[in-house]
């Protein structure tokens, strides 16, 4: 499980960069701002995965709060980096402040789920 979680965290992080930086055809049928739901879901999962990595695997001495702060900070900074790269490196994508807001809401949703599963996370950590 340890190796699987490590692979999942790094793969998911790279996958987000790949998807967000690849050329995107214009989709005229999609409702305006519908991509914000995707941002919310992606960053909820991102926050949860990195929390598991920090809390359960990476640093045994990290407590719940420290791991939560690290995972939220990483998710927020990563979102900013992706938006800056979209603006500067791609021609079919653009950085969007609304995307950063959607990412932040996703991080918050991830935190809510982490708090709801706090007891399970503590049990899981005790097994490692």
**Helical content, roughly?**
over 70%
> Can you give the mean pLDDT?
88
Compute the number of helices: 5
Q: What is the strand tally?
A: 0
- Broad shape: elongated
Name the beta content range: under 5%
Distance between the termini: 10 Å
Secondary-structure-based class equals mainly alpha
Core attributes:
128 residues; 5 helices
Entry summary:
This protein is mostly helical and 128 residues long.
Give your account of this protein's structure.
- With 128 residues, the chain is an all-alpha fold.
- Helix content is 77%, strand content 0%.
- α2 crosses α4 (97-116).
- It has 5 helices and no strands.
Show the helix and strand layout:
Layout: H1 2-21, H2 35-58, H3 64-89, H4 97-116, H5 118-126
Helix pairs in contact: 1-2, 2-3, 2-4, 2-5, 3-4
